[in-house]
Design brief:
Distance between the termini: 55 Å
Number of strands: 0
Number of domains: 1
Length: about 240
C-alpha cells in the first residue's frame, strides 16, 4: 500500500493528461462529426439538381468520401505517428520545422479519427428518420435547413445516443495509444513505474482508473437514454 501511495502523484498527473485528451477529443469531434454528416447529406445527388449544383457538389462529396475512407480505414496509431513524426519533417518559411508536441499531435489525430466515426453514426441517424417527416416539413413550407434543425436532428439524436456512448467508451481506452508517441498519459506513467520498480501494481492501478472512468460514462449515458426515452413517450 505504501508503494501505491508513493506512485500515486505521477499516476494522477498521467490521469490528468488522459482526461484532458479525452475531453478535447469529445468536445471537438462530436460537433465536427455532426457537421460532416449534415454536409455529406446536403451534397448527395438529388433529381432536382441542375448541372451547376452537380458540379459544386461533386468535389465536396469526393473530399468527404476520402476523409472518411482514410481516417476510418487506417489504424489510429498510424495516424498518431503520421502527425507526430511527419510534422517534424515539414519546413516552415523561417527554416524551423513544424514539430508538434506529443499532446497536440495526439489531439489532432484523435479529433480527426473520431470525427469520421461520429460522422457515420450521425449519418445513420439521419437516414433513419422517416421520409414522411421530410414530406410533412415540405408541406409546412420549411426550408431544407429548417427541416434539418427542427425536425431531423432532434429525432436523429435520440437514435444515435447508444452508438455514441459505445464510441465514447472506446475513446477512453484508445487514449492509451497516445503513450506510443511519448505522451505522459496514464498508461505511459504506469509503464514508467513498472520499468523503474519492476512491479505490476502501477498497471493494476491504471486499469482501475480506466474502469472507473468507463463506469461513470456508462452511468451518465444510461441516464441520458432514459431521459430521452421518457421525453419521447411524453411526446407520443
Amino acid at each position: 500500500m505504501d508503494y501505491i501511495i508513493s506512485i500515486m502523484p505521477q499516476l494522477l498527473e498521467g490521469l490528468k493528461i488522459t482526461l484532458y485528451l479525452f475531453a478535447v477529443t469529445l468536445v471537438l469531434s462530436l460537433p465536427l462529426g455532426l457537421l460532416i454528416a449534415l454536409l455529406n447529406e446536403a451534397v448527395q445527388k438529388k433529381l432536382t439538381d441542375n448541372l451547376f449544383v452537380k458540379i459544386i457538389k461533386l468535389p465536396i462529396r469526393v473530399i468527404i468520401y476520402l476523409y472518411l475512407l482514410i481516417f476510418r480505414g487506417t489504424p489510429l496509431m498510424l495516424q498518431l505517428f503520421f502527425f507526430y513524426f511527419g510534422s517534424a519533417m515539414i519546413k516552415l518559411p523561417n527554416g524551423d520545422t513544424m514539430a508538434l508536441s506529443a499532446f497536440m499531435a495526439s489531439a489532432i489525430a484523435f479529433v480527426l479519427n473520431y470525427s469520421a466515426y461520429f460522422a457515420e453514426i450521425f449519418r445513420g441517424g439521419i437516414i433513419g428518420v422517416n421520409n414522411g417527416q421530410y414530406e410533412a416539413s415540405k408541406a409546412l413550407g420549411l426550408t431544407g435547413i429548417q427541416t434539418m434543425r427542427y425536425v431531423v436532428v432532434p429525432q436523429m439524436l435520440r437514435t444515435v445516443i447508444p452508438p455514441i456512448a459505445n464510441e465514447t467508451i472506446v475513446l477512453v481506452k484508445d487514449t492509451a495509444l497516445a503513450s506510443s508517441i511519448a505522451l505522459i498519459d496514464l498508461m505511459r506513467a504506469s509503464q514508467r513505474a513498472v520499468n523503474r520498480d519492476m512491479k505490476i501494481s502501477p498497471l493494476l492501478v491504471a486499469a482501475l482508473f480506466y474502469l472507473a472512468i468507463t463506469l461513470i460514462l456508462t452511468f451518465i449515458f444510461n441516464r441520458v437514454e432514459k431521459r430521452l426515452s421518457i421525453s419521447e413517450q411524453g411526446v407520443k
